[in-house]
Amino acid sequence: MNVEEQIKRIEFNKTDGKVLIKLIEDAKDKGSLVRKTSRKIKEKAIKILKELSQIEKIIYTEHDLSSKERFLDCCAVGIDGSFHTVGSLSSKYYAPFSVVRIIFERGISDKPEIHVYAAGIEEIDENEHKSVDAEASRRMLLGETKALYDWNSENIKSLVFIDGPVVDPPGYVDESYVDYRCDAIKISDNSLMIGCVKRCIDSHFLRYYEKILKLRKGDLMKHFSVDKNLFAYFFTKYRFDNNYNGVLFTHPLELRDEVSRKYSNYGVRIFSVFFQKDSSSNIIRLDVPMAYGDAFEEKIFNAIRATCEWTFPGQDIPVPIEIAHEKCKIRGGAAQVIYEEILARAHASDIEDMVIMRNLG
């Protein structure tokens, strides 16, 4: 039994016995209801898969990849950023951040180069921004975009994996930012960029399926909420029916939401597929940006093939992103120590000033 499990059991045992009895009885009822609901949703998912499969092919395997190119010997780059907000001091919050690039210059057999592209502390006034975390995220993502721009400006033939969607932040429509991010993508015609989205909260495919099945708007979304939930049923069904443990992915879909159309206006089309390395991996979404005139099917199949080869069995995302994610991570404890250092430097020797600073914090 690990430490977390031991702590849970200790806290469980500390709860009043009569309260626990009522909670356990309620948990049994809730569990039965969830089982019944899940069974109905599963039946609906199977029905939808059958109907969709009569219109177009939905699920693909590694055998369907037309790309014969191999990518393990290619230069590969992983870009990721991290931040953690702490504070506040009066209305000021502080956000330590970092942006890291991982470079496998000669392919998977090469020793990765760890490049700390940027690291610092952003000061954010809550009176000037509705959400401190959203502003910290925006600034960090600007750093990631600069790291992408600088790499692509070298025009090196490479795979460029980023942690997250191509449209990032997803709801941010500032024209100058979108223009700059699109420039960072388009500046190289030698790199193949792939966005690896672990936390998929969009419903692009659900809305598309509602249209081609001529369903009422929101009919699929009320059952599955987000795309990933639907494909969890689809992929599991396929694996059990075919006794298959290998790579699965969906047909590509061009994103046409409001923000994606802005990227399109600046010359960047974005296609997405859902992807699962094997049955022990999580389902992720791959975003593949491309310019108008690109052979989109070839580029998408190359992106899927590259992701397959650079993702180890049982892992969810390619190795360069795994390493970049770990190296850039700003942990809460570290951020808190940094904040305490700020406070320590800010404290004057005057007793009255020290009391003021303490009360402000």
Provide structural commentary:
Helix 2 (17-53) crosses helix 7 and helix 3 runs parallel beside helix 4 (175-186). The radius of gyration is 24 Å and the shape is globular. With 361 residues, the protein is an alpha+beta fold. Strands 1, 2, 3, 4, 5, 6, 7, 8, 9, 10 and 11 form an eleven-stranded mixed sheet that branches. Helix content is 47%, strand content 20%. It is built from twelve helices and eleven strands. The longest helix has 37 residues, at 17-53. The protein has helices at 3-14, 17-53, 132-152, 175-186, 204-212, 221-224, 227-242, 258-265, 296-310, 319-328, 332-346, 351-360; strands at residues 59-61, 76-83, 86-89, 92-104, 113-125, 158-163, 191-197, 248-250, 253-254, 269-276, 284-290.
SSE diagram, text form:
Elements lengths: L2 H12 L2 H37 L5 E3 L14 E8 L2 E4 L2 E13 L8 E13 L6 H21 L5 E6 L11 H12 L4 E7 L6 H9 L8 H4 L2 H16 L5 E3 L2 E2 L3 H8 L3 E8 L7 E7 L5 H15 L8 H10 L3 H15 L4 H10 L1
Parallel strand pairs: 2-6, 6-7
Antiparallel strand pairs: 1-8, 2-4, 3-4, 4-5, 7-11, 8-10, 9-10, 10-11
